[in-house]
Write a structure and sequence with these properties.
232 residues, 8-stranded mixed beta sheet, 9 helices, 8 strands, elongated
């Protein structure tokens, strides 16, 4: 073996060691993580997450008004949250609920009980007074009651009004929970910031390692299961 071959081998070993050292340092510094990003994308996909929005206005641009959103359900809609005040004050939601009920869709609206011992917590969390929150809850309950009373008698059973006294920081929608194309929307409220700054996700039902969807569904549907129905 001549001197040139020995030098080539030595340089190759040094280059390989140097490259390995650089990659190790970059990985530790989190500067170069192609495999980590790939794994994260795979986890997001397997969890069924199809949309993320940093502000409510972004979601509205994507999905349209709340009435447009609700019109996508085929069988059933469940809502668990605060009092749905923003939605019920929009005429297109009320009109869409009536249309969907007449098409056979079932609605379960589960909002905070005005008698909940957690009202003071919600007042602090949302940056509102206790009195204002109770007033808004009653307004939503009365709106839902009037809406239900306006339905045909044989359709009224398709709209249930429930109240809960659970500690939540999110609103939860689930469409067609027993169907293949079921979808969850989860909105997160931010402490004492206007609800415009709500951020959230949409999670679709999949049949590949989607424990995330199933756990969310089980958790929030348990709230409906323990809620009190308001009979009009």
């Amino acid at each position: 073996m001549n001197g040139v071959d020995i030098k080539t081998i030595i340089l190759g070993v040094i280059s390989s060691a140097l490259f390995a050292g650089i990659m190790y340092v970059l990985n530790k510094l989190r500067i170069f993580e192609p495999f980590a990003y790939r794994k994260a994308k795979k986890r997001i996909k397997s969890a069924g997450i199809v949309t993320f929005y940093a502000q409510r206005s972004t979601f509205t641009k994507d999905a349209g008004t709340i009435g447009c959103y609700v019109s996508k359900a085929k069988k059933e809609i469940n809502y668990i949250g605060f009092w749905l005040s923003n939605g019920l004050q929009h005429q297109d939601l009320v009109e869409t609920i009536v249309k969907q009920v007449n098409n056979g869709v079932i609605f379960n609206f589960c909002i905070i009980s005005p008698e909940s011992p957690l009202i003071e917590y919600y007042a602090d969390f949302l940056g509102e007074t206790k009195e204002d929150i109770i007033a808004q809850i009653h307004l939503s309950l009365n709106t839902l009651k009037s809406l239900k009373d306006s339905l045909q008698k044989d359709r009224q059973k398709q709209l249930k009004i429930l109240v809960h006294d659970k500690l939540i920081t999110t609103t939860f929608w689930i469409f067609d929970s027993n169907e293949k194309k079921s979808m969850i929307q989860l909105d997160h409220k931010v402490y004492r910031l206007p609800r415009h700054y709500t951020y959230g996700f949409q999670i679709k039902k999949t049949y590949f390692n989607n424990g995330f969807y199933e756990n969310l569904k089980k958790s929030y549907m348990n709230i409906i299961g323990t809620a009190k129905e308001i009979v009009t």
